[in-house]
Design a protein that fits this description.
binds zinc ion, globular, about 50% helix, 3-stranded antiparallel β-sheet, single chain, alpha/beta
């Protein structure tokens, strides 16, 4: 089963993707992981990707899709894969469709995790990290001392700039601007799109994901 995950930052799709991957017995693949693995292995495509990285440039979509194709053709992906962060834009959706067609495989499911922006702002801005050891915390106020800190002197909790409410709203705007056309594209192309209500407990969302994937 080949599944694409779509969802805004903070929606929990990473955790849900791992659970679904375990339940289906397939790997979870993210673009970043696949590119890093190809670079580390020193494959021709990996070396090409590295030349972009080393210049500080974005790796182009067609090269990413070639690397994804190689990953999907590997024997361990024979039963399928959960693709997280692989499709963010319409050209990537088109690219993946071409890759799957060339491998004689098909996309079984596109899970669209939906959740209100303000819920995400609340979740993400509740995150702090220790300035010294970088341990993450949820629901603790910035300025508190990290009493169990492994560093000396112990650090204080700070909110990363990315997790400030204004920065989160901007990330969500970028996500919506990119994703709405992807959703429209899948609808126009009979994509196997299923919306998942991502509000609620992790187990509650998992139950909805499992139902969408045809698991009990
Ligand atoms: Zn610390």
């Amino acid at each position: 089963m080949i599944v694409v995950l779509l969802g805004p930052p903070g929606c929990g799709k990473g955790t849900q993707g791992e659970r679904l991957a375990a339940a289906l017995g397939v790997p979870k693949i993210s673009t970043g992981d696949v590119i890093r693995a190809a670079m580390k292995a020193g494959t021709p495509l990996g070396l090409k990707a590295k030349s972009y990285y080393d210049r500080g440039d974005l790796v182009p979509d067609d090269l990413i899709m070639e690397i994804i194709k190689g990953a999907l053709a590997a024997p361990e992906q024979g039963k399928g894969a959960i693709l997280d962060g692989v499709v963010r834009t319409v050209p990537q959706a088109e690219g993946l469709a071409g890759v799957l067609a060339s491998l004689g495989r098909k996309l079984d499911l596109v899970l669209l995790f939906e959740i209100a922006d303000e819920e995400l702002v609340g979740r993400l801005s509740a995150r702090t990290v220790c300035e010294a050891c970088q341990s993450p915390f949820m629901g603790r106020q910035p300025g508190q001392l990290h009493a169990d800190c492994a560093k000396e002197p112990k650090g204080h909790l700070v909110r990363r700039k990315d997790d400030e409410p204004e920065a989160i709203r901007n990330r969500l705007k970028v996500y919506q601007a990119q994703t709405a056309p992807v959703v429209a594209w899948y609808k126009a192309n009979n994509g196997p799109l299923t919306a998942i209500d991502a509000l609620g407990t992790v187990d509650g969302v998992t139950a909805r994901v499992r139902a969408a994937a045809g698991l009990s």
